[in-house]
Amino acid sequence: MATLELYTKGAGVWVPDPEAVWVSATLLRDYKPGDEQLLLQLQNGNEVRYSVDSPSDLPPLGNPDILEGENDLTALSFLHEPAVLHNLRVRFLDYNSIYTYCGIVLVAINPYDQLSIYGEEVIDAYSGQDMGDMEPHIFSVAEEAYRTMSREERNQSIIISGESGSGKTVSAKFTMRYFAVVGGAAQQTSVEERVLASNPIMESIGNAKTTRNDNSSRFGKYIEIGFGRKGDIIGANMRTYLLEKSRVVFQASSERNYHIFYQLCAARDLPEMRSLRLEPPEYFHYTKQGGEMQIPGTDDLSDLERTRNAFTILGVQSEQQTELFRILSAVLHLGNVNIQASGRSADRSYINADDRSLAVFSKLLGVEGSQMAHWLCSRRLAVGGEMLVKPMTGQQALEARDALAKHIYGQLFTWTVQRLNSALRSQKGRTKSFIGVLDIYGFETFDQNSFEQFCINYANEKLQQQFNRHVFHLEQEEYVREELAWNRIEFSDNQECINLIEGPLGIFDLLDEECRMPKGSDENWARKLYDQHLSSKPHPHFEKPRMTNSAFIVFHFADTVQYECGGFLDKNRDTVFEELINILKASQSELVAELFQQQGGAPSVANGSVRSGKRAAREHKLTVGFQFRQSLQMLMDTLNSTTPHYVRCIKPNDLKAAFMFDPQRAVQQLRACGVLETIRISAAGYPSRWTYEEFFSRYRLLLRGPQSQDQAQASCRRALPQLIPDIDQYCFGKTKVFFRAGQVAVLERLRSERLRAAAVTIQRRAKGWLARIRYGRILWAAATIQRYARGALARRRALALRYTKAAIVIQKTYRMLVVRQLFLMIRDATVTIQAFSRGTLARRRYRQLVAERAAVLLQATVRGWLARRAYRRVRAAVVFMQCCVRRKASRRELLRLKAEARSVERYRELNKGMEVKLMQLQLRVDQQARESAALRETLHTEREAAGTELEALRRIIQKLENQKPEKPPPSPAASEKEVEGRRRAEEKAAQEILRLTQEMQALQKENENISKEKESLTAQLHEKERTQNERVQKAVLEASAALQSELDEEKMKYQGLLRELTRLEQRYDNLREMNLLTERSRGHRRTDSAQSLIFEPLSPSSAPLSPQSLTPLSGSPFTSAFPSPEERRRISVTSPTPERRISVWSSETPLDQLMEKMDVAKDPAVKKKGEDLEYAYDAVRVANKFLESQLQKQQTEWKDELEDLRNQLSQKICSGSCPKKRDLWQLLEAREFECMRLRRELKELRHTATLRHLLTQVSLSAPATETFCAARPKPAAVAGLLECRKRDETKLIKNLITDLRSEGALALPPGLPASVIFLCVRQADCIGDQARARSLCSAALTAMKAALKKQTSDLDMTALWLKNVYLLHDLLIQHSPKQSLDSDELVSMTTDLSDLTRSLSVLCIQAYQQLLSITETQLQKLIAPALLESETIAGLSGSAVKLVVSRKRAGSDPRPLGADAPTMASVLRQLGALHTALSRQALPQSLTEQAFRQMTYLICASALNNLLLRKDMCCWSRGMQIRYNVSVLEEWLRSRGLAAGGAVATLEPLIQAAQLLQVGKKTDADAQAIVQTCTALSSKQIMKILTLYTPHSDLDEKVSLNFIRTVQELVRGHSDSQPPQLLMDVRRAFPVTVPYSPPPALSADDLVIPDSLKISFLRRS
Questions:
Q1: 3 state SS of 1302
Q2: Would you say the pTM of this structure is higher than 0.90?
Q3: Whole-angstrom Cα distance, residue 1229 to residue 1235?
Q4: Where does residue 304 rank: exposed (0-12), middle (13-18), buried (19+ CB within 10 A)?
Q5: Which three-class secondary structure state does DSSP give residue 449?
Q6: What gap in Å lies between CA 1055 and CA 1066, rounded to an integer?
Q7: pLDDT at 175 over 50
Q8: Strands 643-650 and 105-109
Q9: Which of 122, 252, 194, 91 is nearest to 427 (CA)?
Q10: Cα 1071 to Cα 1498: distance, rounded to the nearest angstrom
Q11: Which residues contact 475 (CB under 8 A, 6 or more apart)?
Q12: Which ranges of 295-442 would DSSP assign to H, the alpha helix?
């Protein structure tokens, strides 16, 4: 099938557009050969007609939608300019991806924004990864170069090109940073720092602001980074090309001079800068021409500080920096020198003698101002063998001044580069291989193009030729490797253009020839160009402009450029007068003289020529063009000898706006940088390449005959001729099948047609099957309906019959009911009549009986009245008689009432007392409202008082009642007035009592109300207290959480400092070894004894070590006598001259001073030949003298102590007595124990006789004494300890720690060395020897640290020492004097070892970190292959193959396949080894959980980072595989009880990422679900996964941009609790908390010490 058949209805094509360059359109009808127009519909909906004169005029076809945003341009089906431009635009704007592969080229688009894709976590993610597996990145190119260099041992080059502002400098900087991190690793030395420090220096003196870029490099540079055999950076070298010196004296509008000038002006107020006499940039002529003094977003002062720090790192002394700044300041002042014209025709010039700028310039450079003023305005000429001085015009003087300024800056720039190279030079030996980073200017074309643009474009022509040939060479290698019968690929070679420039009688030759002419000019040179390349022999790449005779046009590979001839000769000569150079040579400044003395001694000038009066000398000077051609040829030779890697930087717009894409500017740069040429070369051959297996898996449905994966190649060879008849469109290789451009699209169309035909067949069969099923269901439904209808009719007839029968029954029943009701009514009427008749008769008889009874009653009433009347008469008589008797009794009662009247007054008095008390009670009730507690007490008191009063009243009443019978009866003469008064008094008293009772009730009600109010207030108070307590508790929890987070942060910082301390110690050791290697390389000489003393480790009896003092130099007594390795390194860096090194090393002053201090005289008898032997002999004598003095000093101390002991004993014998003799014997036992200790130690000093005599005196005099007062306390006696003699301590440490090997150590009980050390320390403490206890513990600490350093890769031994350090730490804390003892059986130590305990805690954390580091190193290379690539679920992803498989780079190292590939079993094996090592040593469970939490975080971070950078992993099947692999890891953690420590929780981001790959990604509901589910992922991570998502098969779809934008809006609306960065920090370390668990009681009897340890010299005590 031909490509023309792809132009069918609905196909996408690209048509030219004046603004967008290319726009997409859709064919509205099929194209047929012979059609002159195509009917197209644009994206905006407009229909246009596209003219087609021939098939070659057809518009380019568009790629399938599945290839949109492809990360490799060569993977596109159709390779042409619009496809490339569209793909770059989609990746840049829609996916925010600035990097894209184009075969072997990395296209980098400047985003003009800060992106978080260059952190250390990104470096870790790309380190060790294959280029084809990861997303495009500058780190991927750097890693490819590094891996190729390490594997093939061949030099590499990274060529970074692009126009100004495209990001070349930043790309080169990140490349160097990647090499510094990967090449330095954990053993980073100062070499990597110096390599990175060169960037700010070169940016300051070589970069400037232009209209296109704020930090444009105005020179080209090639940095060779040298690597050693282990792949570490050992040195670097820099070469520069074509510095734009004209910028020093002239800047265009909106541009600046070099950054260093503005940085110096910003620092003019600093004390060290005041002597430079600097002013603001507006003051100087050389900095104010462009009008731009400040760059937005930059700080010149801080940049200068960064530059100065970089100089310091590179070993440039502060004095040299000051000299450097003086020269730069002098250049600024030189630009302000005022040159005035004089003479009649202004043919002379002069400078005022009082010119301030000239005076400052002369003072700063240390030259004569008058001479400088004279030769700036004059020049020397040789005429007829005589030297004449000719004055110059004002313009000529200004040009001489500017030429001098440019020359000074150029020389300073060259000196700086040389100084950097000397600092970056390798000091470890010969470089094995190097990687070169070329940061060179891209193709340039401006409105006015001059000499600089011509040289730049010439360099790009050479680089483009090398690039084209390399691409062609790679294609040729691929075809040869696959044994293809191929024809030569034709590509446009720009050799003709290069010959025009550099060939014989080319542009450069004619330019140099004109420069050698005495009166050469730009116009003459232009005429020579026209004559040579237009008239005599026309050149196809040369042309003359129509409107001018002072310009020429060159047809470059990228564009046509017109060059203005004005200034070419002056810039090519780049001359400065010899008289000015001679003045500078005589400068008082060492640096200035050095700059120009080097020039005078060199055969040629690097940056220009010196013009003198002698023509012969001038003719042999090299021009700038010739030097540039030489350096460029050397660069090309270097690049041709290396394996190149290309980075093409693109500037997306001229406005420097973030993520704005200008298609016209982009396509212009794509044409200029060679990307489109790469695509054209690839398209000319076979750009699409498939392995037979991939082709079989993708297109097996197009194949015929038997199909088997094992016979894929044979099946492909049989089927392709039938699919593609033109055999020139494909070719079979050994392992791949190759297709020309567009053939994959043809196969895709055939595949889609076959799938469509198969789908139609399947649909036809399916629809017939569905129709038959539907007919059967309809038939069954009709029969069912009929059956149900007939049944309904039958049921209806049966119902009618039932209704008829029911009606008959109802009628029969109704009639029976009517007759029965009539019968009942008649019967009821008959019964009623009978009842009424019988009632009438009964009532008549009743009335008769009532009448008879009334008569009887009347008779009874009359008889009763008569009887009552008689009774009343008798009663009246009786009452009269009673009245008489009662009157007599009333008189007696009157007397009694008078007596009672007096009792009423008493009652009134009592009532008055009650009123007062009630008022008091009321007041107290009011007080109760204020004080509820006091009210109850008051009421209780009042009630008791009232009860007492009432009881008293009762007693009085009782007493009165008792006295009542004794009183005489009242006289009958009492008057009625008294009776009335008594009655009134009683009534009044009753009313008063009633009133008081009511008031009492009111008070009781009020009291009840107050009690209720009190209860309500109490309830409210309790509620407020509860609320307040809740708030306080919440605040306390928040504060606790904040404090805990701060504590964790502090722990992380502290432990990070510990890791940094470990790295610094390792770095110090590396530097020391490097220094030793350097010393050995000077000659195989014997090491000085003094030097051996310097590096001698600490003795076990030295002072206690802190973490800062645990260095090999901290304990040496000769530290001050000899320079340390760090000092020797500093001397070698800062003092490059041989004289200084000789003076430092040959000085005998420190040793002479030490010998004088130790009183060691020179031995005249010893005459040894050789300085080293004599020096070593003197050092040994000093060491012996020092040890002798130490021994004598210790012996004197022991004598003084014995004398004090003797005095104390004699005083205590003569002092007072104590009644108890038991204390005497205790003191005697203590003294005896002390004497035993003294006897053992003084025996070593040979004073046993004196001590024995003293003990005899004590034993003889002790029974005679009666008491001792203020005795020394008895040391605590502890059993089950181990005693180690002092002379055996070194052997103990050596056998127990230093020489312990893994073979026997793992068989020991956990913590045995720590237990033995502690028992020995405990025994020394029990006998009171605190110094010895401290010494032994310190020696054990030092030895354990040394053992850990030796076992940096042994997991089991690291866990063993972690256990011992941890156990020793807990034992010392448990028995510390400051620690409260947990048991009465434990006895605290008397020696304070808190400082050593802290050191043990630090060492414990370091051992823990080393343990994790070992596991991380083993896991790092397994995580990505095991979790992401291994197919644990077999066949899940094998059924579908991606449409386009990414092409691997040449030389890339493929990952192992099959059984050798890492799987989850490999990861679990490593984790199991860690768990086994921790469990074997019985370490705490919490520590194990913390370790596995860190490991699972590493696994999650590494896997997620790889997933975010690998497009091939972002598909549905991989999400399923990843989720299954993570579930296997989760199950493993749970099976070992490690899930509770947070190890499973740290895997949540990876789990959510796997779920994100599996969920739906189409509707708004899916977007909502994604946002709600992926809470552990940041917004950038979610967007990155959605962007990279690749369809798993044809049934899957790519995530649409609308859906991605919807998710982006939803994520933006939610608060993102995760950090905003894209990748997780792999190096993040959780703070570790070492738990304190008091060990059980330790005894020597419980320890099982094997004989293999050889510590039988220990004795149990």
A1: helix
A2: no
A3: 10
A4: buried
A5: strand
A6: 16
A7: yes
A8: parallel
A9: 194
A10: 31
A11: 489, 681, 682, 685
A12: 300-313, 318-335, 356-365, 369-376, 394-424
**Buried/exposed 979-1008: b ≥16 CB within 10 Å, e otherwise:** beebeebeeeeeebeeeeeeeeeeeeeebe
CB atoms within 10 A of CB 140: 24
Number of Cβ within 10 Å of residue 763's Cβ equals 11
Give the per-residue pLDDT at 1594: 63
What is the distance between the alpha carbons of residues 760 and 678, in angstroms, rounded to a whole number? Answer: 42
Residue 454 buriedness (CB in 10 A; 0-12 / 13-18 / 19+): buried
Question: What pLDDT score does 435 carry?
Answer: 92
Contacts 24+ apart (CB under 8 A), 860-869: none
Please say if the pLDDT value at position 1247 is more than 50. no
- Give me the amino acid identity at 429: G
For residue range 504-536, list pLDDT tens digits in order.
889 999 999 988 887 888 999 999 999 988 888
Q: What percent of the chain has pLDDT over 70?
A: 77
> Is 556:497 a contact under the CB 8 Å cutoff?
yes
In the numeric block, the tokens 């009794």 are attached to 889
Name the residue type at position 1356: D
Tokens representing 935 are 């009210």
- From start to end of 83-219, where are the E strands? 99-102, 105-109, 156-161, 207-208, 216-217
Indicate left, alpha or beta for 1648 from its phi (over 0: left) and psi (-120 to 50: alpha): beta
Hey, what are 1388's tokens? 């605290």
Given a cut of 90, whether residue 1132 has pLDDT beyond it is no
CA distances from 590 to 357, 432, 593, 1141 (A): 22, 37, 5, 20
Q: Which residues contact 428 (CB under 8 A, 6 or more apart)?
A: 228, 234, 235, 1074, 1077
- pLDDT mean over 1087-1105: 36
Contact 1492, 1470 (CB under 8 A): no
Phi, psi torsion values for 72, nearest 5 degrees: -130, 120
Question: What sign for the dihedral angle of Cα 888, 890, 892, 895?
Answer: negative
For residue 351, the 8-state DSSP code is E
User: Residue 952: its pLDDT value, please?
Assistant: 79
Gyration radius of the chain over CA positions? 56
What is the total residue count of the chain?
Answer: 1661
pLDDT at 336: 92
Whole-number pLDDT of residue 824: 94
Contact 190, 679 (CB under 8 A): no
Answer for the pair 712, 692: CB distance below 8 angstroms, yes or no. Answer: yes
Let me know: does 372 contact 362? Beta carbons within 8 Å: yes
Which candidate, 479, 499, 481, places its Cα nearest to that of 681?
A: 479
Amino acid identity, position 1381: L
667, burial (CB in 10 Å: exposed 0-12, middle 13-18, buried 19+): buried
Q: What is the pLDDT of residue 1048?
A: 72
Beta strands in 673-745, from DSSP E residues, in sequence order: 688-691, 730-732, 736-739
Tell me the two tokens of residue 121: 């976590």
SS3 1598: coil
**Neighbouring C-alpha atoms within 13 Å toward the C-beta of 247:** 24
Q: What's at 1321, amino acid-wise?
A: V
Average pLDDT over residues 316-338: 92
What pLDDT, in 10s, does the model give residues 827-849?
Answer: 999 999 999 999 999 999 999 99
3-class secondary-structure state, position 189: coil
Q: What does the alpha-carbon distance between residue 1082 and residue 234 come to, in Å, rounded to a whole number?
A: 19
What's the rounded Cα separation, in Å, for the pair 1004 and 918? 12
Helix (H) or strand (E) holding 25: strand 21-27
CA dist 1581 and 1576 (Å) reads: 10
- Check residue 1627 and give its pLDDT: 83
What pLDDT shows up at residue 1269?
A: 35
Determine the straight-line distance between the first and last CA of the chain, rounded to whole angstroms: 99
Output the six-digit token pair for 260. Answer: 């260093």
pLDDT at position 1205 is: 59
Cβ atoms of 80 and 86 closer than 8 Å: no
